[in-house]
């Protein structure tokens, strides 16, 4: 088992007033040649958007884009005709494929919205753009890994899918609880991101918003700290 540790305070950071953002991997003006991606996981941005503000219309192509609200509501509009609001507990996916234009705005004028935006390289280029979102059944996270994103045709109820052999799961562990993570495919890696609380993996202590990449493992244990933990596990091909 091999690991790479990314403390929360080592991430790239930019505060634009309306947007306060942290970048786990190189993005925009933040560049670190040692942190450009983890396998096909390209972007992990931890964004906080001020009340009533947001990202204007902008294009994407040939990228799988996943948005996970952590607090508040985010309004989405795109060139496919979708106008939706994603809330805490939702997961949104968008396959940019041949090209899509979208905007994202804080739905409210009296409070910030916090969300993760994640980009994954697709396993097929120039697909037809698509959009989907679900609301996560958080009861399934209790001391277990609840799979919320899978490859196409995986057939997992209550999960969204993308054009990549990727598996995202969320676990909410009670204090001092330990659970195993078993990889779905040989040769994959898992990037763990601590949403809340603290945990320990292979002797490495992890705090809130810390990241840990795990490779060369078939299974490994995750133990929560004394106040519990909520963790996003992103399993992806490393090639």
Report on the structure:
With about 240 residues, the chain is mainly β. The chain contains no helices and 20 strands. The strands form three sheets. Strands 1, 13, 14, 15, 16, 17, 18, 19 and 20 form a nine-stranded mixed beta sheet that branches. Strands 2-3-4-11-6-9-12 form a seven-stranded antiparallel beta sheet, with no helix packed on it. It has a four-stranded antiparallel beta sheet with strand order 5-10-7-8, with no helix packed on it. The radius of gyration is 17 Å and the shape is globular.
Distance separating the two termini: 17 Å
- Proportion in β-strands: over 45%
Report Rg: 17 Å
What is the SS-derived class? mainly beta
- Contiguous runs where pLDDT drops below 50 for at least 5 residues: none
CATH class value:
Mainly Beta
Q: How many individual domains?
A: 1
- Morphology call: globular
Mean pLDDT across all amino acids = 97
Q: What is the CATH topology assignment?
A: Jelly Rolls
The tally of strands reads: 20
Helix content: under 10%
The CATH superfamily is known as: Jelly Rolls
The CATH architecture is Sandwich
The string of secondary-structure elements, in order, is EEEEEEEEEEEEEEEEEEEE
Instruction: Give me the number of helical elements.
Output: 0
Largest sheet: 9 strands, mixed
